[in-house]
Amino acid sequence: MKTLFRNARLYRQKKSINFLVFEGRIKEISNGINFANIENEIDLENALVLPGFVECHTHTVFAGNRGLEMEMKFQGRSYQEIAQAGGGILSTVQATREASLHDLMVLTEKRIQNFIDQGVTTLEIKSGYGLDLDTEIKMLRAIPKNSRIEIVRTFLGAHAKPSEYKTHPEYLNDLAEKYLPEIKKQNLASRVDIFIEKGFFEKEESKRYLLKAQSLGFELTIHADQLSLSGGTELGCELKARSTDHCIQVSDSEIQKLSESQTVAVLLPAADLYLKCAYPPARKMIDAGVKVALATDFNPGTSPTQDLGLVGMLARREMKMTLDEVVQAYTLHSAQALGLQNEIGSIEIGKKADFTVWNCDEEELFLQVGGMKPYQVYKMGLKI
Ligand SMILES: [Zn+2]
Question: For 274-288, what is each residue's pLDDT tens digit?
């Protein structure tokens, strides 16, 4: 069916435009209405129209919560005290291992809807709270196959070392030899992620693991340089990873390498707020020519929020990103972080007709925490 959308006021454009959608993609864009054989017509009445948001880094599948641990952290209790009280990532692992597939599916569906309500039309979700093959598979299966939006699945078995293993390299070896081939065989994920950090998964052993993943056809992304300069960003550039994420402790030479690569720096300021740590040097990166994307990092332990408005506001307030840079970071650049920049992320001929319609001025975007919502969301030209 050919649908004509009339009177769309695109972000930063003074004049409204019309665009024609056929089979889910934008076929033509024009100022006039000289289109033939229109079967359906929708008047957007000069409302603000944005490309659908691309949320490119989340840990949306998990069971349990870490509220008690958060309270202890906020009250200044030590890491050891929190661990003794049963907190930390392994508590989410335990809860996720115990949850049924059905329970995880229900929790995940509700969270996906929260993202859709904010205008997200493409969403990345990672595994990584199973850390055993069965639970990692259960997590990836809990992500709906036929969602109303597009979902990109990432295998993050290398999130932390499960207590069953003595050393990180030992676990990575099993991940490479047993987990990756099985995830590939069952086609449960298209990307592989790893948490590279000193004292956790170190750079050299991570490189071998990522090369193995690449040889099996997985695309790469890396949790890099969050707590210390541990080389994850440099390795990401070297291996042509789609993105390196966090990038708080990046060096000047890593910024240089990022700027010369196609690798996107995905910044996650909501996690930095909860952890009360430094924000990444976004201004420096953008000025050096690095492509910067933003995401929530939604997870129960370090970023228990799905609020895109909070992320964008922090990027503006704490990282000196302009509103235009924030909008780009949540659309075209986050699409590139998923390797989908030729399909989504902007309203252009040939791309998927993923867009949102707003009843506010563009200056009001990424300002209000907890309330930034479009009134219509379209995925491939259909209202969802
Ligand atoms: Zn993360």
Answer: 999 999 999 999 999
Alpha carbon separation from 295 to 270, 286, 343, 378 (Å, rounded): 8, 16, 19, 20
Q: Which two tokens stand for residue 172?
A: 């990575």
pTM passes above 0.90 = yes
94 C-alpha vs ligand 1 centroid, how far in Å? 18
Structural domains of the chain sorted by starting position, each given as residue range(s) with its CATH number in brackets: 2-50+346-383 (2.30.40.10), 53-337 (3.20.20.140)
> What is the 258 CA–ligand 1 centroid distance (Å)?
19
Q: For residue 134, how far is its CA from the centre of ligand 1 (angstroms)?
A: 21
Distance (angstroms) between ligand 1 centre and the Cα of 271 equals: 9
Using one digit for the tens of pLDDT, what is the confidence trace for 61-70? Answer: 999 999 999 9
Q: Hey, what amino acid is at 39?
A: E
Confidence at residue 33, expressed as pLDDT on a 0 to 100 scale: 63
Residue segments in the chain with a per-residue pLDDT below the cut of 70: 33-36
At which residue do the structure tokens 């700027």 appear? 259
Find the 223 Cα to ligand 1 centroid distance in Å. Answer: 7
Give 33 Cα–ligand 1 centroid separation in angstroms.
45
